[in-house]
Write a structure and sequence with these properties.
The complex is a heterotrimer of chains A (193), B (188) and C (110).
Chain A (H helix, E strand, L loop, with lengths): L13 H10 L5 H6 L1 H27 L6 H9 L1 E3 L5 E4 L7 E5 H14 L3 E9 L8 E11 L4 H19 L3 E13 L7
Parallel strand pairs in A: 5-6
Antiparallel strand pairs in A: 2-3, 4-5
Helix pairs in contact in A: 1-3, 5-6
Chain B lengths: L1 H5 L3 H10 L2 H23 L2 H18 L9 H22 L21 H6 L2 H12 L2 H11 L5 H8 L3 H22 L1
Helix pairs in contact in B: 2-3, 3-4, 3-5, 4-5, 5-9, 7-10, 8-10, 9-10
Chain C lengths: L3 H7 L4 E5 L5 E3 L20 E5 L2 E10 L5 H16 L3 E11 L11
Parallel strand pairs in C: 4-5
Antiparallel strand pairs in C: 1-4, 3-4
Classes of the chains: A alpha+beta (193), B mainly alpha (188), C alpha+beta (110).
Chain lengths: 193, 188, 110
């Protein structure tokens, strides 16, 4: 329901001002600088927005910290399904046997090799190609965050080598490429004094 | 590794968690759990229900993380799920036709026994008048306002959560703000 | 409670853990694949052994050490299971679900 005194004498409404504050859109922007009613309306809405920010800050403080018991209890009660992904075959001596490893285990392996690289933290890992067919070419794509100060190119080259070795050791995949994308450079956390 | 994970960007954590890394998932939960809890409390008005919502959202998030198209947007996604679950809970509660507040649940704007003394100190006159005005809003407007200002959702996201059009969101939000401004300026 | 077959599998060089043949769930915090039924005396054995039309089928899920060579480990596990279930027509299914250092030793004796 609209309220009787919703529309200003200039013809604009508080609803238009509300939209303007959220999106920056307004039919006649220069008007906002000269019209006292619109300016008062905007001031009121901005005061409300500031009060909303205060309320949010207060609610957030009251909700506690991520390391508190309430969240620890929630996390401890979660039973998370393992995500195995596709089945990667391994060759067997006996035709009656089916030997394989999960895509999830290889993704985790890539991640842990990357994490072992000094200053590197692995992000998403993708095995592209049909890993279920022996001999099919597979490209490994890895996102990486690197701590500031570590030589990026040297890190990537050394990591590529470690990954190739780990994949040769633990899979029979035909690795056609190992692509590392450095997605983030992170400032090292400050030393606690 | 855990400490290192705490400083990496959301997209890295979301990518790892989507791949199955529980430590990264835990790190995300710690990072945004308090915001999710605050939003669920404000929407449901119940501290206990809010924690149930957070738990349900985390379970759903684990299951659906690999469907997230933009891992960098995981925070907004978690808050959107929190909004949806909170609204669902409110609908179920209303369907039980219990209109009294005799459940023993503390409304969100009183200090819970579990909260520390600093909670009372943070409250101010501005917040009190806003809380009072908020609780007097029609429920549909109140939800829009909370989803916008506390969950940080866009018009489109709020529209999806409430199953209405973005134009309706715009209208309800504006009416909420108009009423709140008037209530609070009367208070002053 | 571990069976002789589980012990035979664990004895294979490079095997770090034997996981339940069926669904895996993970608990937080920390270790992936800390499984719900490991300490439950009533739980079915981790290794599934079925008779199917004269053939014995065994299903095994394992963890492998990062220092081992996984293709060799799985073949050795299949051979160990076949040898343990001999004589007979045995088909072994071995799946590696984790490649990482094994869990720390449990306090109690198994």
């Amino acid at each position: 329901m609209s309220m009787p005194n919703d529309t200003f004498e200039c013809g604009h409404t508080l609803e238009e001002l509300s939209l303007y504050l959220d999106t920056g859109e307004f039919p006649d922007p220069p008007h906002l600088e000269s019209c006292p009613e619109c300016r008062n309306g905007l001031d009121s809405l901005r005061r409300l927005s500031a009060a909303g920010d205060e309320l949010f800050a207060s609610d957030l403080a009251a909700a506690g910290s991520g390391t508190d018991d309430w969240l620890k209890d929630i996390l401890a009660n979660l039973a998370l399904e393992l995500r195995p992904g596709r089945s990667i075959p391994l060759s067997s001596d006996d035709p009656a046997d089916t030997l394989s490893e999960t895509e999830g285990s290889i993704v985790a392996l890539v991640r842990s090799v990357a994490d072992s690289q000094p200053g590197a933290v692995a992000g998403k890992v993708r095995l592209e190609g049909d890993v279920t067919v022996p001999g099919s070419p597979v490209a490994v794509r890895l996102d990486l965050a690197v701590l500031f100060g570590h030589a990026l190119m040297a890190s990537a080259a050394s990591l590529r080598q470690d990954l190739a070795e780990a994949l040769a050791r633990h899979t029979e995949l035909n690795i056609s490429a190992i692509d590392i994308t450095i997605t983030d450079v992170i400032d090292a956390p400050r030393e606690e004094s | 590794m855990r400490d290192q994970l705490d400083v990496v960007p959301d997209a890295i954590l979301a990518g790892r968690a989507a791949d199955g890394d529980t430590a990264a998932f835990e790190s995300l939960a710690r990072r945004y759990g308090p915001h999710m809890r605050a939003a669920a409390r404000r929407l449901t008005g119940s501290y206990a229900d809010a924690d149930d919502v957070v738990q349900e959202v985390l379970v759903q998030a684990w299951q659906q993380l690999d469907t997230l198209r933009e891992p960098a947007a995981v925070k907004g996604w978690l808050l959107r799920l929190t909004g949806s679950r909170s609204i669902d809970l409110l609908r179920r509660r209303r369907n039980h036709a219990s209109l009294t507040t005799a459940d023993g649940e503390a409304p969100a704007d009183t200090v819970s026994p579990g909260a520390g003394p600093e909670t009372a100190a943070v409250a101010s006159a501005g917040i009190d008048s806003l809380k009072a005005a908020l609780s007097a809003l029609p429920e549909e407007q109140r939800r829009c306002w909370i989803l916008k200002e506390i969950n940080g959702q866009s018009y489109e996201e709020i529209a999806r959560t409430l199953n209405i059009s973005p134009a309706s969101v715009r209208g309800r939000l504006a009416r909420a703000r108009i009423t709140l401004v008037r209530e609070m300026e009367d208070w002053r | 409670m571990t069976t002789a077959l589980q012990q035979a599998i664990m004895a294979v060089d490079g095997v770090t853990e034997v996981f339940p043949a069926r669904t895996l769930w993970q608990r937080l915090p920390g270790r992936a694949a800390s499984l719900l039924q490991r300490n439950n005396a009533d739980a079915p054995p981790l290794v599934e052994v079925r008779e199917d039309g004269g053939r014995t089928e065994a299903t095994v899920r394992i963890g492998v050490s990062p220092d081992a060579r996984t293709p060799e480990v799985v073949r050795a596990v299949a051979a160990a299971v076949r040898s343990h279930l001999a004589p007979g027509n045995v088909a072994v299914q071995v799946t590696v679900v984790r490649i990482a250092a094994g869990p720390p030793p449990v306090g109690r004796e198994g």
